[in-house]
Batch of 2 targets.
Target 1
Amino acid sequence: MTFDDVSGTLDYPMVVVTTAAGDARSGCLVGFHTQSSIEPARYAFWLSRANHTFRVALLAEAFAVHFLSDQDRDLAVLFGTQSEDDVDKFEQCQWHPGPDGVPILDGCATWIAGRRHVALDDGGDHVCFIVTPTASNAATDHRPLMFSAVRDLEAGHDSSEPPQPDR
Ligand SMILES: Cc1cc2nc3c(=O)[nH]c(=O)nc-3n(C[C@H](O)[C@H](O)[C@H](O)COP(=O)(O)O)c2cc1C
């Protein structure tokens, strides 16, 4: 048995992480994320070096984590299969500027906004960002969109791609 045999059996909720720095904004579908502290509250997510979102995140203080519901597959397709390197995803969905200017997706009622606490680069193909929540909203009847419902999607950037130069 290999590690892939084990990880292939796992299922977990999907989120869209958005971020903004200066005039730049970005966001992508993320499966690697978790609460990482209770007191103080912290939330962690891992961004692929290949993604446009990662390049904006390096310069950003403000982030939002949107917890997709089982009705949000369209947002998973938009943010998971398209890259901001090629398209303006924010022209294709409804959003508004939230705390510290970070984009909040109107179609997603359950989210947390936060400020960067730390970024941890362990040399892997994803880098860990940990945020301190500053604002949040929760739907009363949230039913998560699970990895098993989107595992067929082809990522806009494969994590094995070399990082893109800044454009
Ligand atoms: C099922 C699935 C899970 C993904 N999980 C992650 C993840 O945990 N972290 C990440 O950075 N990208 C993840 N991606 C890839 C990005 O969402 C995808 O490459 C996106 O198009 C990048 O957009 P960007 O270049 O505009 O940032 C995932 C994609 C899919 C389809």
Target 2
Amino acid sequence: MKFSAAVFLVLILSTVIVAFAGEPDSARAYKDVAGKIIDEALANGQAYSRLRELCLQIGPRLSGSPAAAAAVEWSRQEMVKAGLDNVHLQPVMVPHWVRGEVEEASVVNSRQVGTVPLTVCALGGSVATPALGVVGKVIEVKTFEEVRRLGAGAKGAILFYNRPFDKTERNTFNAYVGAVDQRGRGAIEAARVGAVAVLVRSMTSRLDDIPHTGVMHYEDGVPQIPAAAISTVGANFLSELLQAEAGVRVNLRLSSHTLRDAPSANVIGEITGTELPDEVVLLGGHLDSWDKGQGAHDDGAGCVQALEALSLLKTLGLKPKRTIRAVMFINEENGTRGGKAYAAEIAANGPRHIAAIESDRGGFMPTGISVDADPGGPAFKSVAKWSFLLESIQAHRFEKGYSGVDIAALGDHGTLVMGLVVESQRYFDYHHSDNDTIDKVNERELELGAATLAVMSYVLANEGVGVEGR
Ligand SMILES: [Zn+2]
């Protein structure tokens, strides 16, 4: 009795000692690994050179376009070259919208300024105008409430949505969310009161003459009217003219239209886990971009970072216990067909995805991880406890927040979903416009984002996440 009690006590004590001694050891070991990953990314990272190739040799790659098909094949080849396992395509049918040759707008026969061109571009999904364009009296609005109040007064008019970004928002994504309903639903609300077209102030706080496109929607039973983005310089000019002169008219000409759905694919590659190969940690970005600029920040950056994270682990000979998978999703911008198809396949046939991190906020300096889970719960804590691994690059701010459009549906099926958070002040200077080019991407910032993904995916693939209780 006495003896077995003593044995029992020794067992408990040794367990306690091992537990205490083990934790600092593994923490130290992971810190060592994180340091090596970050060193390798900064010294020899290839995310930037890959992004340069994607931007300059393939360029913008809207879903359904020949360039998007080229980007799918390029990505597949890059994954093979990087030595990833199980490289394959998941076929997905995608919408195929084309901008066409003509997109122009001008103020017509103003008493003050005569006929003056305005810089516009079609919003993604917009129908064309008649060949000679549509001419209408311009009415400036800032809210849908104002649109409803116009009622029959809007009949035959071109509604001009001119609610700017709230510049006091510290995080520019909040300013975007506060304005983007004008782009998404502006045409629907305008058509309901009889307007013939809409112009929407570009989704940026930067003042320049470059319009920013992005997806817009129609609704069943509501007439489909053409919709264009106007540059911020153009929007300010038009607004001032409207204050000075009654009855200002604009002629808008667009030739955009939607073709039949096109075949495309998600591109997938992985490092197979050594102990739990059927459990997956996913890293992702989206391969499609708008047909403006080069899709450098949005979201070529996220794609090359996901691939680079796996390359870094391979180069350093780090073998994760669970599988780490890179997915380049197709059609995030105008349909999310890639993300939806991926989540449906995983829900039906597995393998189980314990965690997923998307990088789709630009290739800027990483500041941390947003975790789509209750900050007091075990899932959040199981991730946040590793934030110290990223302290040396100041990417250790882990907060509750949104993950990413492509992986959100995985979250609905129980995967712990997260987003790579980056410094946000410049993103909307470039987003969805001719400004989004490779020269706007800083090599070191991009590589550090890739290193952040590599560190987090490696530690989560080895240590797991507390998914229960999410
Ligand atoms: Zn994006």
